[in-house]
Specification:
Elements: H1 2-6, E1 10-12, H2 19-49, H3 56-85, E2 89-90, H4 92-125, H5 130-133, H6 136-161, E3 171-172, H7 179-183, H8 192-224, H9 229-258, H10 267-277, H11 279-291, H12 293-304
Parallel strand pairs: 1-3
Antiparallel strand pairs: 1-2
Helix pairs in contact: 2-3, 2-11, 2-12, 3-4, 3-11, 4-6, 4-8, 4-9, 6-8, 8-9, 9-10, 9-11, 11-12
Length: 318
């Protein structure tokens, strides 16, 4: 135990002590990862090359897919590699990098979901002013703000987390470097910096959540007043998938954050982390692809090798 405490890196917990089960879990993770990788890449490609998808909604969706692809790539490949090698060691530099990228992308995903809810709010509640409100410059600015705010969040979390003095056995009861688990390795009050950062980011996330609730309250109020059944159906088919994505991401994230970490490995902790880190990036492209006719048509063109119209509108191909 003394050697574990004094080593420079960290030991990540195994999913199982049985070698065969480790390989099975690695293969399951690999299947999920490849599915997520392929589906998000398809969305990124078709929203870039199909002129019918050069609108703010699909522009934001492309960045959501890019975030999802990056988000799952931070944790899952490393976990697969550790399982296949039967080695959970991660150096401190690797852990620092993983914490920075993970926390950056986690916040950026929350921010892009907020922007997407605002986009749907403007499209449904102010359709005549949509092109003016959601002009290319503002859309680009919103996306830049999403990525920059994510980077700031990552810097704050990383700086605060690794200012801690780790004096306990450096065993992390997760399949990645999780901030709450790292806090349990501290023996002093220097983790209060992380609590401060967490409180600030949580307050900002709450503001985002209120904004999303505000947007959808007005959206559904407007949709229910539509005289056309077809119009209501089209609006709901666009908004309900987004609402499901937002609800699932926020609920699993809150559950993972509020769930107290344990001093001993528990299967429920690993399951919660999987629902938070793996399932949303896997579900997002499936939900949008299966419920959106324009996306399905563009996907058929791509899979059947048909030519896209190369004409681009404004900047949304970028």
């Amino acid at each position: 135990m003394a050697n574990i405490t004094s080593m420079s890196g960290f030991l990540l917990i195994r999913f199982s002590d049985i070698r065969e089960l480790q390989i099975l879990y690695a293969l399951l993770f690999l299947v999920l990862y490849l599915l997520t990788l392929a589906s998000n890449l398809i969305i990124i490609i078709i929203t870039t090359v199909d002129q019918h998808l050069q609108t703010p909604m699909y522009y934001f969706l492309k960045h959501l897919s890019l975030l999802d692809l990056s988000f799952i790539s931070v944790t899952v490949p490393q976990s697969i590699d550790n399982s296949l090698k039967d080695d959970g060691y991660m150096s401190q530099d690797q852990c620092i990098l993983q914490v920075f990228i993970f926390t950056s992308l986690a916040w950026a995903e929350m921010a892009i979901l907020t922007v997407m809810s605002y986009d749907r709010y403007v499209a449904i509640c102010f359709p005549l002013h949509y092109e003016v409100i959601m002009d290319p410059t503002k859309c680009q600015g919103a996306v830049i703000a999403v990525w920059l705010s994510g980077s700031i969040s990552g810097i704050l979390f990383t700086a605060a987390t690794f200012s801690i003095t780790f004096c306990k056995a450096k065993i992390i009861h997760q399949f990645f470097c999780d901030v709450p688990q790292l806090l349990k390795l501290s023996c002093s009050n220097d983790y209060l910096r992380v609590i401060g950062v967490t409180t600030f980011v949580s307050a900002m996330a709450f503001i985002c959540f209120i904004s999303i609730v505000f947007s959808y309250t007005h959206i559904f109020s407007t949709v229910l007043r539509m005289p056309s059944d077809e119009g209501r159906s089209k609006a709901f088919s666009t908004c309900l998938p987004h609402l499901f994505v937002v609800s699932f991401y926020i609920s699993t994230g809150m559950f993972a954050f509020l769930n107290p970490t344990s001093d001993s490995p528990m299967a429920v902790d690993l399951m919660i982390s999987i629902f938070y880190t793996v399932i949303p990036p896997t579900l997002n492209p499936i939900i949008y692809g299966l419920r959106n006719e324009a996306m399905k048509e563009a996907c058929r063109k791509l899979l059947l090798g048909r030519q896209f119209n190369k004409k681009k509108s404004q900047f949304y191909c970028c």
